[in-house]
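Notes from the 1:1 (GR / supervisor)

We went over the backlog. Supervisor wanted to see one worked example end to end before approving the batch request, so GR pasted a single chain during the call. The sequence is below; no edits were made to it. Supervisor asked that the structure be written out right there so they could see what the output format looks like.
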Amino acid sequence: MKIAICASEVVPFAKTGGLADVAGALPLELELLNQEVIIIMPRYKTIQEPKFSIQRLKSDISYSLIGKNIKVYFIEKDLYFARDGLYTDKTGDYKDNLDRFSYYSRRTLELLKEINFKADIIHCHDWQSALICVYLKTLYMDDPFYKNSKTILTIHNIGYQGLFSKDEFPKLGLDWKYFNMEMLEFYGKINLLKAGIVFCDIINTVSPTYSREIQSKEFGYGLEGILTKRKEDVFGILNGLDYSIWNPRTDKFIIKNYSLENIEDKYKNKEDLERVCKLPRKIDVPLFGIVSRLAEQKGFDILVDAIEKIYNMNLQLVILGMGDLKYHVILENIVKKYPKIISLHLKFDDPLAHKIYAGSDVFIMPSKYEPCGLGQMISMSYGTIPLVFKTGGLADTVTEDKGFVFDKYKKEVLVKTIDKVIKAFKDKKKWQGLMRSAMQSDFSWHESAKEYAALYKKAKSR
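Structure output shown during the call:
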């Protein structure tokens, strides 16, 4: 099949989050499954020669190659994309984001015609490319070039919807008849994600559990009704993990490589992490690691509420990440009191993240909601046991033989689960069994890509 991946960010060219990882990794695996794939994205200021070997196609279109022969087309327009940030600056969202991504969507569809790529599937990601689904069934509905093209919209996080003032609707080039509560209107505003959900052929999310959760009031962010109406068209496919990056056998950032064959060498990494984080050497005390955005969604509300109880337990804790200022302040004050128990790093530090995944005994992800989550998959590949809240992709990946799951989002239940982990850690034989089970997990993109190929076939047959 011919597949066009349309995303506003793609690794290695531009990234703010997990969307870029998916849009960069999935096409490589689809190519290995003999699918014909191209990618179309905006050309941001950071996408420069000679780093990416960019070639010119037209005055406003350039391209690069990834994989064996996947062309990544860049839509150029300096007015919209020659900026330091992808979507925001220090004052917040760019005021012209509607102009920027409606232009990207229209230009994408024109480009497909110009390069004569009759896509069987146009795979759109999040609100930034959702208008492609709309335009295909409105402005281009009578265009024979797109007669056999079907669209899939992947929702990476339903909390980000692309909301804009009703006054901006004329910029979309659509008839006002589409601005109604069944289509683009959402409480008096334009909602691009909702528009994509209404007009695409198939909707999917980044884990099976999350695909069900977003159809509930608790997790749907106001779109649960429209998703429930289309429940037969909603699917969930777990994101994959790039084992070429996250592999204790080959990781260049950790002090001692290890695998199932020499699992005991993991403890050399614990010793190194304690040294780097200026914590006392304690082989018999579990070291808990966190690599996360410091935000309520990531569970920091209950974690901070429970922190007094936690630092009085027999453990060590390393936290790496940045986020909401209130959590920065609270955690900084606690670390001043307990520098021998908690090590805090308020920054982005990729080498340290690798050391935390390899050197910790336990990895905490108490997220309130988590569409997929990669941290728990990464930690398992390093034999670091995940402790997670039962939600989204965390529920789909962490089982009792590989980790610890709590199912009530309360600080008391989190503390109780941490206590359970500390007790379990004392039984070295059982703990090593957990480690081995976790390390045998396979979350490779190869499996996810096969599921996407099947989903494309399903869309094609509609």
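Supervisor's comment: Residues 361 and 384 are 5 Å apart (CA to CA).
Batch request approved.
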